[in-house]
Amino acid sequence: xxxxxxxxxxxxxxxxxxxxxxxxxxxxxxxxxxxxxxxxxxxxxxxxxxxxxxxxxxxxxxxxxxxxxxxxxxxxxxxxxxxxxxxxxxxxxxxxxxxxxxxxxxxxxxxxxxxxxxxxxxxxxxxxxxxxxxxxxxxxxxxxxxxxxxxxxxxxxxxxxxxxxxxxxxxxxxxxxxxxxxxxxxxxxxxxxxxxxxxxxxxxxxxxxxxxxxxxxxxxxxxxxxxxxxxxxxxxxxxxxxxxxxxxxxxxxxxxxxxxxxxxxxxxxxxxxxxxxxxxxxxxxxxxxxxxxxxxxxxxxxxxxxxxxxxxxxxxxxxxxxxxxxxxxxxxxxxxxxxxxxxxxxxxxxxxxxxxxxxxxxxxxxxxxxxxxxxxxxxxxxxxxxxxxxxxxxxxxxxxxxxxxxxxxxxxxxxxxxxxxxxxxxxxxxxxxxxxxxxxxxxxxxxxxxxxxxxxxxxxxxxxxxxxxxxxxxxxxxxxxxxxxxxxxxxxxxxxxxxxxxxxxxxxxxxxxxxxxxxxxxxxxxxxxxxxxxxxxxxxxxxxxxxxxxxxxxxxxxxxxxxxxxxxxxxxxxxxxxxxxxxxxxxxxxxxxxxxxxxxxxxxxxxxxxxxxxxxxxxxxxxxxxxx
Length: 628
Fold this sequence. Notes:
By secondary structure, the protein is an alpha/beta fold. The chain is 21% helix and 24% strand.
């Protein structure tokens, strides 16, 4: 009796239902208390994505199906056509600032960029153009080679070169001393008589006499806002952004987005001049504002970019990409004026083992309990409170619909990268890899585009190995240009096409008619993980995803699947009774999107707008269409 009282006191009443009855109600299914996990706590029990139930637009769902266009130059049009036939409506295309020629008259690879943009226009694709400045090729630059005249030991601040002509103090430097990094060790002084140059940082390794790679940057790494160096670099960056907008429109693209920056976890040294100098002797010693908030280097760079782009191309959506891996660094309502949205890269789909102890001491467990289990969650960790930085904090309707950057009427949420590398899940065989990617793509599109993400760019279109991220066939470069989809499409491509076809007939809607749902589990059940003497298990019924959309005034579509946390463990079918209210008719069709096959369901009409559906559910999405 004492254990029973403890469970009820902890709010785990659904875990007790199965003890007394074959039917287990998930009550209520849409439960706002699931979102109650105060910062910085974490929880394995709370399902914040179940904190609300929205009926999203099916038309918007279709337009949110995106992918990162990483394709080989060989047969690129075939790849783009196949992606369009898969149902993909938007490509994310990176065109870094380093692809601009030294003269800035054209891109180094402008012909290919123009061809890609023209193909987007031809196949009805909305591109998201990513501008970036990876330290390896951050801006217009010149690569060249000199000879090191004498060995230079680790720790040296100078080297002797055979030729110092055309070197530019503060812009020329030694490449790749510790990373893929152009001009990593900047030249701060030159002695033409001896060929000796002074470096901004001590050599991190010994250098042998002989060929030495160098580069000259046309623009300096970011200095503090208010300096001439910052103004010059920012002007060059803005010019690049405007060039991309011009190219897109010249190639017939009517609607497109501009994403500013890609992640802060790698390739970001160009964002701070002090990265090029010894930590003990930085170039800039004055305290600067936080780089991602007002007055900071990146915030101001984005502000100037947004203002210039909006003035010249007012219909372009400008997306703040510094949020990709730092979801909460800058508050949305404090982003640069005119920012139309921000983007995220949750990932977290690889193997993650929880061993009954906290991973991070700064994120205490809400229930005082951490279970033991392996997780390979295809939606990533971000829809859960496994980390406190749950994306639902941004996407819940009461926050999402009322929070926006200054000067915009509508704020968009993009997921510009999300996918699965199968080897990170322990999958190394081709059939297993294709199935895992099909599961990740379809489940992620269904969940995130229902819970508040407007566009999801799956990562990625192509890789040479089946066990990589790509969805296109690995033999793409060698396929005949006229290849038919049905002859060459991979399992995940077929699954995404099945998913998009289930939304056929979607039209723009001024508003959607909300569906309500009650959920009851029938018969035998299984667990996500075990509890302990004071904590119940988490049941798979508690992670049943019911995700409603409206296709047109007479039809809804609902994605249904169990959000299993380990995608390598197939879930035997579990039976659920779903009682929907607000339906437009009693005609029901169901399709398993991975197999593309119809599914038998039991349907019972309970009233004018109420319907009861009984169906078996596994870890793979089923789309129910309900209407007249």
